[in-house]
From TrEMBL:
This is 5-methyltetrahydropteroyltriglutamate--homocysteine methyltransferase. Residues 4-303 form the Cobalamin-independent methionine synthase MetE N-terminal domain. It comes from Devosia yakushimensis. NCBIfam families: met_syn_B12ind, PRK05222.1. Pathway: Amino-acid biosynthesis; L-methionine biosynthesis via de novo pathway; L-methionine from L-homocysteine (MetE route): step 1/1. The lineage of its organism: Bacteria, Pseudomonadati, Pseudomonadota, Alphaproteobacteria, Hyphomicrobiales. It catalyses: 5-methyltetrahydropteroyltri-L-glutamate + L-homocysteine = tetrahydropteroyltri-L-glutamate + L-methionine. Residues 424-746 form the Cobalamin-independent methionine synthase MetE C-terminal/archaeal domain. Binds 1 zinc ion per subunit. It holds the Pfam family Meth_synt_2.
């Protein structure tokens, strides 16, 4: 009989219980026991909820206190030496993620093309591994004690190694496979002994362009593991198998999961080559977006698979883990009925999976209500007058000059004359601490407990305070602090037409940090200026240059739930035109420097190289639409963080921002190498402070990083700034670190005037 499965459930809890428990524990307000108890309660709740929704195959070990890749690292005992002295496993685990006073945190980067960040494994030659945690077994037993026989989820060994970073030049992490496999084998044998019938092993790298070494590693791994393991469901997602199809179907595993939301076209070729003994799990419900599924269309796809593999070898599943979906649409009491009827969050997706499974088992009539509701929602979305705005569509078809008035060297002269900044100008990336007081005031304003005028007065006072602090510290280019913003994307979504936002649609970004992606349901336009009031107010308080702060179109697109009835490029162009208008309004208000953040430009890069060029063309063009209208002497900045830049350097250069600030310090300036190798032509601020850690770097440390940067970048191209915005930090850390940062710049200026720097 065809079964329903889930591949992972969000960890956070419908009321963000996990976030609250983690942050209280980190602040020392609660005990480890209380934190662990929250974990136990959330796991039990989520297992039961999946059972009640009618899911046959329920995952365990999808829960994590921080990150599932870090859990795998801890499981393998791959503890970087700087943390090895920490005795308590929980303290060591969080130290690896967040750093301590003595030990910088491990690096963090994007999980494939998502806004989820994982902690990057640190790998070196001769590394030893041993089974070092019992989490996988414990959670399997925990569910079993509740009467639920789960399918444990593991990050596969080849994906784990491929995501890791060599700590020595020229070292290939895949050479550690021989050392890692015995640990996986031991764990899998223990799971089997415990009674696990199946295990889900995620190898999402199978949706990427693979090297021969990775292919060989996959063959070696599964030939070594399958004999002693429970039946393995090898799980791929986020894209098609394409040229990896033959490799995947030949691996000695019992089942294969494929993503038919991102790549429905892969079903037919796959069915042709799928061996007759393999179970096929088809991902039919979108784990990456919030639109209600077209159940009739998906049933047709499932039927195509069913015709080929029969009822007993078919599993109906989400495309990927539901980690990337908000928890429960029932929490959205303020969405209008029409919009709500178009959406499905994780809980609703479970019901969709169950309905589809019933549909394939017993025919559409067996789940008639669900199918009819789905068909009605699809019809209503298609026909709704809220979706299409002819004037917006017409504007996207007009041609726009993508070039600034003059090339960078000319603009640079004009900007130097206008701003007259010292060498190594210092600045920050935009946000200052979002303190509890600020969040409380905003919550009070949103619940109409305080008047708008009082909220604005409060924000004005916070902004002024931040400006005085920046002046006192001696920063050269100031920012207003972004106190009025809940999030750098949601804030814009709330002010643009065509967007809806949720009250509780939280999705994990990293650790205890969550985002509430807005929903782009229709054509996008800007009814009124969005940021001018705050930038102009801030500029009026100081004589120093004030940098306006905008989120770029690709990032707004990438960090929203995007409509699927038109190409992403089209939606992005609509957003770009709205941001262009904002840029021009800022310029007209006298703001001479405007930062257009594009931290998600790299994240949006398609997983397969063959699709890169087309994406980069429209993504870069959209950025250029936002910036090309300003005068030479208006300085355009951009900012990027938590990504590998090597692959997209020409595109970054083509964006032609006058200044780019990038996150580099957590990787010890390694991310800067792409800019050095490429000889990045414009100005650049490599981050010298890892702002994701509560650790305050000293002046020596920052100087060392800047000197590394200055080895390849001309001193007069360099800016001095943190890795990213400071919204997650507290004021005392910010003041000390920025004081050190300004002292660093001054020290280098002193040397530069004596010409000693390079
Ligand atoms: C730069 N980053 C961002 C990414 N994606 C985004 N969409 N935004 C980003 O900034 N991706 C890459 C990186 C990831 N980094 C971060 C960093 C920090 C956060 C973060 O701090 N998230 C906050 C939530 C922010 C927010 O929306 N806040 C709202 C609501 C606050 C709230 O919880 N209010 C309470 C009531 C107030 C109280 O009493 O405390 C409530 O509603 O119950 C706001 O400020 O109004 C987080 O807390 O996780 C995310 C990604
Ligand atoms: N301006 C934003 C960029 C974050 S990527 C901030 O400072 O938070
Ligand atoms: Zn950033």
């Amino acid at each position: 009989m065809t079964k329903s499965a889930n591949l992972g459930f969000p960890r956070i809890g419908a009321h963000r219980e996990l976030k609250k428990a983690l942050e209280a524990y980190w602040k020392g307000e609660t005990t480890a026991a209380a934190l662990l108890a929250t974990g136990t309660e959330l796991r039990a709740r989520h297992w039961q909820l999946q059972q009640q929704a009618g899911i046959d195959i329920i995952p365990s070990n999808d829960f994590s206190f921080y990150d599932h890749v870090l859990d795998t690292t801890a499981m393998l005992g791959a503890i970087p030496p700087r943390f090895a002295g920490i005795e308590d496993p929980l303290a060591r685990y969080f130290a690896m993620a967040r750093g301590t006073a003595d030990a910088p945190a491990m690096e963090m980067t994007k999980w494939f093309d998502t806004n989820y960040h994982y902690i990057v494994p640190e790998l070196h030659e001769g590394q030893n591994f041993r089974l070092s945690t019992s989490k996988v077994l414990d959670e399997y037993r925990e569910a079993k004690a509740l009467g639920i026989d789960t399918r444990p989820v593991l990050v596969g060994p080849v994906t784990w190694l491929s995501l890791g970073k060599a700590k020595q030049d020229g070292f290939d992490p895949l050479t550690l496979l021989d050392a890692v496999l015995p640990v996986y084998a031991e764990l899998l044998a223990a799971l089997k002994a415990e009674g696990a019938g199946w295990v889900q092993i995620d190898e999402p790298i199978l949706a990427l362009d693979l090297t021969e070494a990775q292919r060989a590693a996959l063959r070696q791994a599964y030939h070594a593991l399958h004999a002693s393991a429970p039946s393995i469901m090898l799980t791929t997602y986020f894209g098609a198998l394409l040229d990896n199809t033959a490799l995947a179907v030949d691996l000695p595993v019992a089942g294969l999961h494929v993503d038919l939301v991102r790549a429905p076209e892969q079903l037919v070729p796959l069915l042709k080559v799928l061996p007759a003994d393999k179970v096929l799990s088809i991902g039919l419900i979108d784990g990456r977006n919030i639109w209600r599924a077209d159940l009739d269309r998906q049933l047709a796809l499932a039927t195509r698979a069913w015709d080929s593999v029969g009822p007993d070898r078919l599993v109906i599943a989400p495309s990927c883990s539901l980690l990337h979906s908000p928890v429960d649409l029932d929490g959205e009491t303020e969405l209008d009925d029409e919009l709500r009827s178009w959406l499905a969050f994780a809980r609703q997706k479970l019901s969709e999976i169950a309905a589809l499974t019933l549909g394939i088992q017993r025919g559409r009539g067996a789940a008639r209500d669900a199918f009819d509701a789905s068909a009605a929602a699809i019809r209503s979305h298609r026909q709704s007058p809220r979706i299409h705005q002819p004037e917006v569509k017409a504007r996207t078809r007009t041609s726009i000059d993508l070039n600034r008035g003059n090339a960078f060297p000319t603009r640079r002269t004009a900007q130097r004359q206008r701003f007259n900044l010292p060498a190594f100008p210092t600045t920050t990336i935009g946000s200052f601490p979002q303190t509890a007081a600020i969040r409380e005031q905003r919550a009070a304003f949103k619940k109409a407990r305080i008047a708008e005028a009082d909220y604005e007065t409060f924000l004005e006072a916070e902004t002024e305070k931040a400006i005085r602090i920046q002046e006192r510290i001696g920063l050269d280019v100031l920012v207003h602090g972004e106190f009025e913003r809940n999030d750098m994307v949601e804030y814009f979504g709330e002010q643009l037409d065509g967007f809806a936002f949720t009250r509780n649609g939280w999705v994990q970004s990293y650790g205890s940090r969550f985002v509430k992606p807005p929903v782009i349901y229709g054509d996008v336009s800007r009814p009124a200026p969005m940021t001018v009031r705050w930038s102009a107010y801030a500029a009026s308080l100081t004589d120093r240059p004030m940098k306006g702060m905008l989120t770029g179109p690709v990032t707004i697109l990438q960090w929203s739930f995007v409509r699927v009835d038109q190409p992403r490029a089209e939606t992005c162009r609509q957003i770009a035109l709205a941001i262009r208008d904002e840029v021009l309004d800022l310029e007209a208000a006298g703001i001479g420097m405007i930062q257009i953040d594009e931290p998600a430009l790299r994240e949006g890069l398609p997983l397969r190289r063959r699709d890169w060029e087309a994406y980069l063309r429209w993504a870069v063009d959209c950025f250029r639409i936002t910036a090309s209208g300003v005068a030479d002497q208006t300085q355009i900045h951009t900012h990027m963080c938590y990504a590998e830049f090597n692959d997209i350097m020409p595109a970054i250069a083509e964006m032609d921002a006058d200044v780019i600030s990038i996150e580099t310090s957590r990787s010890d300036m390694e991310l800067l190498r792409a800019f050095l190798d490429f000889r990045y032509p414009n100005e650049i601020g490599p981050g010298v402070w890892d702002i994701h850690s509560p650790r305050v770097p000293g002046q020596d440390e920052m100087e060392l990083l800047l000197r590394k940067a200055a080895e390849g970048i001309a001193a007069d191209q360099l800016w001095v700034n943190p890795d990213c915005g400071l919204k997650t930090r507290g004021w005392p850390e910010v003041e000390s670190a920025l004081t050190n940062l300004v002292a660093t710049a001054r020290s280098l200026r002193g040397e530069k005037s004596g010409q000693n720097l390079q």
